[in-house]
Amino acid sequence: MGVVIAVASGKGGTGKTSVCAGLSTALADMGRTVLCIDCDIGLRNLDISLGLPDNGGLSFLDVCQGGYPLSQAARHPDYPKLAFLTAPMNCPAEKIPMESFQDMLRRARTEFDYILLDAPAGLGAGFRLAASAADRCLIVTGAGPAAVRDAARVGEVLELMGKTDIRLIVNRVDRDIMRAVRLTVDDVMDTAGLPLAGIVMEDMQVPLAAAFGRPLLRYARRCPAAACCRRIAKRIQGFHIPVALG
Fold it and tell me: Domains along the chain?
């Protein structure tokens, strides 16, 4: 059975969506079948980070309502094992039936190895929709105190929802800045109170890949952020990969 992973964040601007896209393409590049779902209703942009900016595609609501099968989810031209469902534009998260969403994911578990849900930032209805059906949760944070505090709050809410597999990804890590403020990744982990899934280095290739409409792992295969996403993807699969800067 496939594994459903919610990728969440306490606030916007942490790079959650680019991390979700990086992990999805890395898993697909390793031969895993992956379904990537944009759950950020009204502010969807996962397609851009995946390198699918011109893809209209099905929304997950189209599938939830029974009008289309999962087999018609958009397929990535560079990653044949990666399928994508976008977010609906005109239906608020509060109006989406939790039962039909979870039923769709139960079907997806039989067809894909991994289902990654790009949850909207914060703790609103869209976040709860994605988190409710997740087997694992990844919280993406920056190293700044406000982002870490928000990540800790998201972790607390997930625990109250009964989630036990919750891990932290520290994104956009800049060695020089962290050294200047005498901050370590261990400090971030301690403040958030969450175990670490991995770190992703600050990398100008990330916005450049999005600007050119290319997935990061194809646009700059050897860049630091792409290497970090590959390492985290291996950990997701159960491989023991040490955490390293760069």
Answer: 3-236 (3.40.50.300)
CA distances from 6 to 117, 120, 128, 168 (A): 5, 10, 10, 12
Full pLDDT tens readout for the chain, 246 residues: 899 999 999 988 899 999 999 999 999 999 999 999 999 887 788 999 999 876 667 899 999 988 899 999 999 999 999 999 999 988 888 889 899 999 999 999 999 999 999 999 989 999 999 999 999 999 999 988 888 899 999 999 999 999 999 999 999 998 887 777 677 777 787 878 899 999 999 999 999 999 998 999 999 888 999 999 999 999 999 998 877 655
Q: How far apart are CA 77 and CA 142, in angstroms?
A: 31
* Residues present in the chain in total: 246
Distance CA(192)–CA(145), nearest Å, equals 10
- What is the rounded distance in angstroms from the CA atom of residue 195 to the CA atom of residue 45? 28
Question: pTM of whole model > 0.90?
Answer: yes
* Alpha-carbon gap, residue 226 to 222, rounded angstroms: 7
Show the 3-state SS of 196-240: EEEEEECCCHHHHHHHCCCCHHHHCCCCHHHHHHHHHHHHHCCCC
Closest CA to 35 of 105, 128, 103, 138: 105
Measuring CA to CA, which residue among 114, 117, 119 is closest to residue 237? 114
> How far is Cα 236 from Cα 149, in angstroms, rounded to an integer?
24
